[in-house]
Amino acid sequence: MSFFKTAAIFSNSCVLQRNKVIDIFGTTTLPAIIKVELSKGGKVISANESWFSEGKWCVSLPKMDAQTGLELKIIGVSGDKTHSFSFTDVAVGEVWLCGGQSNMEFELQNCTVGPDALAEAADPNVRFYYTQKKAWLDDDFYASEAKTAWQKWDSDGKKAWSAVGFFFAKKLASDLGITVGLIGCNWGGTSASAWMSEDRLASDSDLKSYLDEQEAATRGISEEDQIKAYNDYLVRAAEWDKRAQKVWAVNPTIDWEELQQQIGKNEYPGPKACNNPYRPSGLYKCMLQRIMPYTMKGVLWYQGESDDHKPAMYRKLLTRMIENWRTDWHDPSLPFVVVQLPGHRNKNDPDFKHWPLIRQAQAEVCSSVSNVYLACALDLGAYNDIHPKFKKCIADRMESIVLCKMYRQIAENTGFLNDNDFTGIISPVLESALICKDKIIIQCENASAGFEICTDNDRMDHYISMEKHQGRNLSKSEIENWTGFEIAGSDGNFVPAKVVFDGSKIHLSSPDIKYPKEARYSWFNYSPIVVYGKKNHLPLAPFWFK
Predict the structure, then answer these.
(1) pLDDT-above-90 percentage for the chain
(2) Contact 525, 384 (CB under 8 A)
(3) Cβ-Cβ contacts under 8 Å for 413 (sequence gap 6 or more)
(4) Residues contacting 306, CB < 8 A, separation 6+
(5) Per-chain mean pLDDT for the chain
(6) d(CA 248, CA 251)
(7) Could you tell me which of 162, 124, 83, 71 has the C-alpha nearest to residue 392?
(8) Residue 458 carries which DSSP code?
(9) What is the spatial distance between Cα 532 and Cα 537, in angstroms, rounded to a whole number?
(10) What is the DSSP string of 220-241?
(11) Rounded to an integer, what distance in angstroms lies between the CA atom of residue 395 and that of residue 93?
(12) Which residues of the chain have pLDDT under 50?
C-alpha cells in the first residue's frame, strides 16, 4: 500500500482548469517529497515539487492554455520509499462545479430533451466527475470513494449526469471550442447549511441556530445509537417507497395526503443524526472537502427550496456560504451563477409566500456580492411539481450569462454581445424605484427595448384552481387584467396595480391608493407569468420595493 495518495477526484480523463494556477493535492502518511509532472507525447511540459510532513499535501502547477492528450504523474519519495500515480487522457479546459439540491442533481435521462441528447453519437466535449454521495466517513466511504473517476461521453454513467450541468457545459464547450469538466457536488433536499463548515455557521448568531437545533435533537444520544436510528429509518423508507411505487403505477396523480393515508406516513427526512445527510455541515465534510481545493472556474448553484422554512435568513446563509467556499478555495472572486427559484406550489397548499422571500434573497445576494450572477427561472416552474423537467432552458440562460460576464471576448467576437448591452441575454431586474405622488416608477436594468405582455393560460388555470381550493374565487377583472404587479400604502395592504410601460420604466398606480409606499412584482409561490423583456423574451425578475 502506498504511503501517499492523491485526492480521488484525480483520475484518468480528468479536466484541469486553464489559465489558473493548478492545485494537485492528496494525503501522505510519511514525510515526503511530492513531485507533479504534466507531459504530452512523452515530453514534460510542466512540473513542480515540494516537501511535506504527514497529512495533506498540495503541489501547484503554473497556468496553462487549453489542451488535451496529457499525462499527469505524481511521484512520492520518502527516504528509500518511492511510489507514483499516473493518469492519462488528461485535459486542460474549463471546470465548473454543479452545486445545490435535487434540481441540480436532476439526471439527464429524466429531463424533457435528455433522451434525445443521450442518443446523439457526437462527443459534446464534456466530462463529468460525481463526488460520491455518502454522508458518513466510515471505512466503506473511503473504499467506494477510491473507485470514483471522471467520465466521458462514452460512459454509460452519462445518463445520471446533472441535466442542468450537462446542457450548460455542452453549449459552453461549443462556444469556447475546448473541453469543459463538471464536478457534481449536490444532494436533493439539502439546506445551504449542509454545505458550510461548522466554524462558519457557529460564528454567526443567526446561522448558529442550525447547529443548535441539531445538537438539541441529538443531546444524550450516543453516536452509535444515532447511526442505528438513521439506518433503521432508511430501511423503512425503502419499504415505503416500494409501496408508493405500486400506488403511483395505478394512480399517478394521487394527492400526497391520500397516498400517506393508504400506505402510511412518509418519515422523510428521517431522525436528526450524525449520519443524516441533511445535518448542518454534513455534506461539507463528506463531499465538498473531498474535492477541495480542486482548481475550477466557478460554481453553478441551484438551491433554496429546502431553506424555505427560514426564508428571512436565506440572504445571510447564501452570502456566508459563498464566503466560506471562496475562503476554502483561496479564490476571493470565485464566480457563482445562482438559479433564482421558479414558481412552485403544491396544489392543495395555500400560498405561503415564502418562495418569493427566497427569490428576493437570491436577487439581493447577486446584487450585493461581486461575481455572483442571477439566472431568473420564474417562468420555468411546473404545476404541482417541485422538479420541473425542462432543464435545458435554465442551463442555456446560465451559459449566456457566463459567456458575456466571464468570456467577454468570445461573446464580442461572435456578435453575441455588443458593448455593455446585456438586454439580449439577462432577465430584466429592478434597478431603482421612485415614489412620485400617486404612483411608483420602477426603473429596470436589461430592458432597453421595453416590455411585452404575454398570455399564460395554463398557469392562470392552475392558479384559479389552487385559489378556489383555498376558498377564494378570482374575479373576472382580476383574471383578465393580471400582471402580477401590486402596490401598497402606509398600511402595507397590497392591491393589484394599474400598469403603464414606458421603455425600461414601469409606472404603477391604483385608484384605491392615493399615496403608494411599496411595490412588488410576482410575489406568489406560483402564479401566471406574463411580463417579459421585449428583446430577449426573458421574464422580469420578481422584486419587492419598500
Answers:
(1) 94
(2) no
(3) none
(4) 101, 189, 190, 191, 278
(5) 95
(6) 5
(7) 162
(8) H
(9) 5
(10) T--HHHHHHHHHHHHHHHHHHH
(11) 19
(12) 419
**C-alpha to C-alpha distance for 244 and 263, rounded to whole angstroms:** 7
Output phi, psi for 305, to 5 deg. Answer: -55, -40
Cβ pair 446, 417 in contact under 8 A: no
Distance CA 196, CA 130 (A): 19
- Phi/psi of residue 231, each to 5°? -65, -40
Instruction: Locate all alpha helices (DSSP H) within 186-271, ordered by sequence.
Output: 198-202, 208-218, 223-250, 256-263
**C-alpha 445, offset from chain centre:** 24
Burial 99-124 (b: 16+ CB within 10 A, else e): bbbbbbbbebeebeebeebeeeeeeb
What's the pLDDT score for residue 510? 97
> What's the pLDDT score for residue 425?
78
Is the distance from CB of 245 to CB of 237 less than 8 angstroms?
no
Q: How far apart are CA 442 and CA 279, in angstroms?
A: 41
Taken as a whole, the chain contains a residue count of 546
Asked if 12 and 92 count as a contact pair (C-beta separation under 8 A), the reply is no
323-335 burial, b at 16+ Cβ within 10 Å, e below that, comes to: ebbbebbebeebb
Alpha helix stretches (DSSP H) within 437-489? 457-469, 476-480
Query: What contacts 478, CB < 8 A, 6 or more positions away?
Result: 496
Of all helices (H) and strands (E), which one includes residue 318? helix 314-328
DSSP 331-389: -TT--EEEEEP-----TTS-----HHHHHHHHHHHHHHSTTEEEEE-GGG-BTTBSS-S
Alpha-helix residue ranges (DSSP H) falling in 378-475: 391-406, 408-413, 457-469
Peptide bond into 293 cis (omega under 30): yes
CA distances (Å), origin 111, targets 119, 182, 247: 13, 18, 23
The three cell numbers locating residue 314: 436565506
Q: How far apart are CA 274 and CA 190, in angstroms?
A: 15
Q: Distance (Å, rounded) from C-alpha 322 to C-alpha 316?
A: 10
Report the distance separating Cα 373 and Cα 101, nearest Å.
18
Q: What grid cell was written down for 222?
A: 450516543
Contact between 331 and 369 under an 8 Å Cβ cutoff? The reply is no
> Residue 71 in contact with residue 86, Cβ under 8 Å?
yes
Q: Which residue has the cell 433554496?
A: 304
Q: What's at 254, amino acid-wise?
A: I
As a whole number of angstroms, the longest Cα–Cα distance in the chain is 87
Could you tell me which residues come within 8 angstroms of residue 464 by beta carbon, excluding any fewer than 6 positions away?
474, 479
Cell of 23: 492545485
Continuous segment of H or E residues that includes residue 499:
strand 498-502
Cell numbers at 466, concatenated: 389552487
Q: How far apart are CA 377 and CA 371, in angstroms?
A: 19
Smallest Cα–Cα separation from 193: which of 105, 275, 270, 282? Answer: 282
Percent helix, strand, coil in the chain (nearest 5)? 35, 30, 40
| Spatial distance between the Cα atoms of 313 and 332, rounded to a whole number of angstroms | 23
